[in-house]
Amino acid sequence: MIKNLPVRIILRITFIINCIFKFSYFPKSWKTAVVVPIYKQGKNAQIPDSYRPISLLSSLSKLAETVILHRLEAETENKLPFQFGFRKGLSTTEQLIRMTEHIREGFINRASTAAVFIDIAKAFDRVWIDGLIYKMHKLEIPRQLILLIQSYLKGRNFTIRVEKESSTLGIILS
């Protein structure tokens, strides 16, 4: 969609996104999500759990998010060698192979191996923002990028839309 815009508009959007990085500020109006419940086929339509919420954001917000993500990925690429989830070209399969090799070496060397596996339900809905910011500082992510991500994560809100009706604005707490 954006690729089809006139060059002058693309240049203005580029300028705006560069300003977002320069000032480490994510526009407030871009942080409002319209949540639309999508029915899960075969479920009881009277039960709220039978719907999956989809958050709709503006195209500019999604574009800015993508640019932020690429910059964050570039910063963390070599800083998280054992992080396999949500990274391009890596998966839980590679992590499993790595662990299997570690266990095999332990057997050969007669060493013990311990492992802890955690699966946190709705983990992204429960992110402790201040803890995440702290971790980014510990990873030595550039300060401006941390401030921008903090600006993006704080002060978000949403409205729920069903057909033509919308709820009042709600605040996203985490």
From TrEMBL:
GO molecular function annotation: RNA-directed DNA polymerase activity
Keywords: Nucleotidyltransferase, RNA-directed DNA polymerase, Transferase
InterPro entries: DNA/RNA_pol_sf (IPR043502), RT_dom (IPR000477)
Keyword Phosphoprotein part of the UniProt annotation: no
Chain ranges of the Reverse transcriptase domain: 19-174
Alphabetical list of PANTHER family matching this protein: REVERSE TRANSCRIPTASES
Protein name per Swiss-Prot or TrEMBL: Putative RNA-directed DNA polymerase from transposon BS
Organism field: Araneus ventricosus (Orbweaver spider)
Gene name of the record: RTase_24
